Each structure stands twice: as C-alpha cells, then as structure tokens.
Amino acid sequence: MTLFMKKSVMMTVMLLFFTFTPGFGHAASNNTISKIDQFIKEQQTISKIPGISVIIVDKGKTVYQRGFGFADTKTKTPVTSDTLFELGSTSKAFTGLAILQLEKQGLLKRSDDVRKYIPWLSLTYKGEDKAVTIQQLLSHTSGIPSNSITQIPESTADNALELTVKTLLDQSLNRQPGSSFEYATINYDVLGLVIEQVTKQPFDQYIQQKILQPVGMHQSFVGIHQVHSTHMASGYKIGLMREQRYIPPIYRGNIPAGYIISNANDIARWLKLQVGNSDIYSISNNLIQESHTPDLTVEPFDTNTYYANGWAVVKKDTKSYIYHAGENPTFSSYFILQPDEQIGVAILANMNTSSTTAIGQGVMDLWEGKTIDMQHISSYQKLDKIVTIICAIIIAISIIFCYLFVQNIRNLYKKQRSMANLNYKRILLLSAHTILVATMLTALFITPNIVLGGLNWTFIKVWAPTSITFLLYSSISASLLYLLLGFMMIGTKRKN
Q1: Which of 73, 169, 376, 480 is 20 to 30 A away from residue 320, measured at CA?
Q2: What distance in Å separates the CA atoms of residue 125 and residue 128, rounded to the nearest whole number?
Q3: In the chain, what's the furthest Cα-to-Cα distance?
Q4: Where are the transmembrane segments (predicted)?
Q5: Residues 256-285: b if buried by 16+ CB within 10 A, e if exposed
Q6: pLDDT per position as a tens digit, 196-232
C-alpha cells in the first residue's frame, strides 16, 4: 500500500468516524462528558429516581443522548432512547404552538374572547362575568385559580376535555383577567378545547397530524390512550424514603396541559426545532420564535422571568434562557434552551420530583463550561423523610395501644378486670373521649383544605409522596385504637 493510499484510508476512517459519531457543536471535551455523566449519576442516587433520559443538542446535532437506571425496577428494564415518558407540563409548548399555528392560518386570534369558540364558558370575578382572551390563557393571566387542578375529573371518555373545562363554571376567577400571573394548568386544557372547536378534530388527532408528524416525532403520543408500545416506562413516586411504583388515575381531559408522551429520539428533534434548526420541517422558525415571546404586560413571576406560550423566559447576565418544567403524579421532565448558541437540554424521568429541574439546570451549566457544586434534595424528599419518621412514631404508639388493649382483654378473661357500671362520671368520660377522637379525625381530614389552599385528600393521595397516604391511614388506625382502648379503660374496672 502506497503512502498516498494509507493517507486516503486514514482520512476515510476519520470521516466515517465523525460522520456517525454525534458531533460536538459546542466543542465539548471528553472531560465535560465525564463530568455530566458523574453529575447525573450522583443526582440520580440522591433523588432515588429509577430512570432518567438525558438529551443535549447543539447547533443542529445531537451531542449527548443517554439513559440512566431503569424504566422498570422490577424487571430491571434499562432506560434506552426508545423509552417513553410522560412529559408533564412541558406538553404545554405543543398546545401553545398549535394555537399560534391556527392563528397564522387565520382561524383564530389570540385577542379573541374564548367565548367566541366556547360560548357556554362563563367566567366570573367577584360575581361579574369577565372576558378572558386566548392570549391570557396562553400566558396564565386569565385569573383562573391555580388550585383548579384539584377539580380535574378522572376520565377516559372521549369528551373528557369538555368535562374538565366545565369544572370552571363552578369556580370564580382569582383575579381580574390580564392583571397578573397565576399559573393554572387548566388554562391549557381550555386551549385544547378551543383547538377542537376550531379544527373540528379531537385534540389528540390534531396534535399528531399538525405538530408531531411534521417534526418527525413518530414515536410520540398524545395521551396514554394512544400508547400501544412495550417501551412505556413504569411511573414512580417517592415514599418511605425509596421509590414506590404507583399507577395514578387517568386524566384524559388534562392531555393538552400535561400528557404528551415521548422519548429521547423524538425530544432531540423537538429541541432542534426550538433552538432554530427547523429548515427541514414544515413548522417555520418565525412561528417557533413567536412561541418564545414573553408576555411583558404583567409583572415577572420570578426574578427577570416572564411567561410565553408554554415556555418561561429568563434573563441571566447577558443571556436569555427558555425553559419549562413538567411534573405528573409519576413522571417529570425539564427542558431548557439557549437559542443564541442553539443549545437545548432535556431531562425525562419516571418519578415526580423537582430534582429533574435541578439536573437539567446543572447539565446546561456544565455544557456551557461552568462549575457547579450542587446536591439538590427535592421538597418531596424532605417531606417524605419527615412524614416517614412521623409514621414510625405513630406505628410505635399504635403497637403500645394494641398491647394495652390485649392486656385488658386478657385481664377480663382472667377475671382481673370486670365491666363497670356506667355512672354519670363514666358516661361523661366516655363522651369526652369520643369527642376528642372525633375532633382529631375531623382535623386530620380538613387540615389540607385549610393549610394547603383548598387541596383535598383525593388530590394529595395522587400527587404527594406515598408516605402521606400511609400517614393518613396509620393516623386513622391509631385514633381508632385509642378510641377502643379508652372505651376499654373507662368501661371496665380492676377487681379488688
């Protein structure tokens, strides 16, 4: 082989290597990749997330796409690029883009009163009917209360979206429409119903045909009812200081706000579209940029942070970042974009946790060459740890109650105790004891509604750590044991 032929072969091998190896548009070193790998593994261990999928795109190339942990801990199925996750509220960007798409086609205007498309949707503030525009729904300035999420009905029906929107007829607005920001997930369910009314198509079909397919997201679904795949990850919640498998109710009427289902392969395409590499798609870059335009008519909801159309926009130093977090009962996600550099990062996880957000922010920082020193512990984890300790104390107390109750039964059997006559004093004690336990149980049931701004136990059981539900049932059991023990102690007496 001549020297020329050797050089030609070497150049061919190098060309093939760089052609089929993900390109590093940001010129990341192996050291950066190692740091990202190590950071994700550390955070996964801390957060107890069973499975994570991480995607980084840079200047039109997928430069990092890896799975960590398990899609299902029981079967030890690893997370791959095909593993499907619910996106949670990062789904809102799909719905927001669909609205802008319809406006471009002249089928609606964002300045329109929503009643133009849903005539029966009467929304009131302080007893007065108020006009709410499509733009106010997009930017969460409609005045719809954030706790309206608790009223979203469990449903698999074809008209579930309409059923969800109708729950607003029984709720007053929290503020004058257009006056200020209040995040309410149901805003985007209303937008989903608008899309149905305008297109005369079910929401899921429209998004599939007009958003997902043009982008090439052929492995993605609009709602769990569309999924017929063995690649769907199992969902988990934190509970008793470890991951707990949990199957939540189906909220088909909440799909426009939180139930797009996708994987790393398709999310890489979505990120490329968002950061400006949309020339190969039928969705224009101008439309994407419009979806990133923040609503500056109200005060920022966080430091230098405004809401756009399914995205939040924040100014940090000289750079603007576009991001959104998503949390469902058993899944979470986080997308963050730096459009000027055409960088996009996405984190998908099969557990409801804010650690997904922390991981996404950390990965972006590392990719940009920043140093980080972060060990994020989510609020759910902190709550779960406290509740787990309380549960252990309640169980210990319950065991003591059981022991004392059994001892009294034993003493009755051995004739060491006998039934007492119910005199005035004993009846008073029994009444006081019953009222005390009834008060304890009543307080247990109404506390969430009072302390947590209208949340109820049904909602808490679905969304909160499983230890909260365990605390509820263990507290009820301990209270009933205490009630029985009190009856036994007051209603019997020791024999001389």
Answers
A1: 376
A2: 5
A3: 114
A4: 386-406, 427-450, 470-490
A5: bbbbbbbbbbbbbbbbbbbbbbbeeeebee
A6: 999 999 999 999 999 999 999 999 999 999 999 999 9
Bridge partners, residue 332, by sequence: 327, 349
For residues 352 and 330, the answer to whether their CB atoms sit within 8 Å is yes
The answer to whether 482 touches 439, Cβ cutoff 8 Å, is no
By CB atoms closer than 10 A (0-12, 13-18, 19+), residue 139 is: buried
What distance in Å separates the CA atoms of residue 216 and residue 122, rounded to the nearest whole number? 38
pLDDT in tens, 339-381: 999 999 999 999 999 999 999 999 999 999 999 987 889 999 9
**Closest by Cα among 354, 117, 395 to 238:** 354
Give tens-digit pLDDT for 111-162. 999 999 999 999 999 999 999 999 999 999 999 999 999 999 999 999 999 9
Reference 273, options 226, 317, 213, 233; nearest CA is 213
| HSE-CB of 260 using CA atoms within 13 angstroms | 33
CB of 195 closer than 8 Å to CB of 98: yes
